[in-house]
Amino acid sequence: DWRLLTDDDLDALQGAYIEAARLAFEAGFDAVDIKSCHGYLINELLACHTRPGRYGGSFENRTRFLLGVIDRIREELGPDKAIVSRLGVYDAIPYPYGWGVDKDDYRKPDLTEPKRLIAAMVERGVRMINITIANPYYNPHIGRPFNEPIAGGYQEPEHPIVGVARMIRLAGEIQREFPRVAIVGTGYSWLRALMPNVAAASKANGLATLIGGGRMAFAYPDFAKDILMKGAMSPQKVCVACSACTQIMRDGGRTGCVVRDNKVYGPIFELGRMSDPEHLRLLAQACRGCQEPTCQLGCPAGIRIPDFIHRFLDGDERGAYEVLREANIFPEVCAWLCPVEQQCQGSCLEGFIGAGALPIADIQRYLAVQANKNGWSKLRLPKESTGRTVAVIGAGPAGLACAARLLEAGHCVTIFDKHRQAGGMVDSVIPAYRQSDSLHNELEAVFADVPQGRLTRRLGTQLDAGYNLDTILGEGFDAAFIGMGLPQSLGLASEKLDGLYGALEFLAAAKGGQVDLRGRQVAVIGGGNTAMDAAVTAMRLGARDVYVVYRRSFQEMPAWGGQRDEAIAEGVHFLILTQPLGYVGRDGKLAAVKVCPTRLGAPDAGGRRRPQAVESSAYELAMDVVVEAIGQQIPAAFETTLPGVRLSGGKIAVDDRLMTSRRGVFAGGDLVRGASTVVAAVADGMKAATYIGEYLAGGV
Question: Widest CA span of the chain, in angstroms?
Answer without folding.
Answer: 91
